[in-house]
Amino acid sequence: MRAELSAPVAGILLAAGAGRRFGGPKALASSPETGSWLQRGVELLTAAGCAPVVVVLGASADEALALLPDDPRVVPIVAEGWAEGVGASLRAALELLAGRHRTIVAALVTLVDLPRLDGEALARVAGGAVGPSSLRRAIYGNTPGHPVLIGREHWGPLGAILAGDVGAGPYLRAHAAEPVDCTGLGGDEDIDRQSGSDG
Question: In the CATH scheme, what is the homologous superfamily, with its name and number, of domain 9-181?
Answer without folding.
Answer: Spore Coat Polysaccharide Biosynthesis Protein SpsA; Chain A (3.90.550.10)
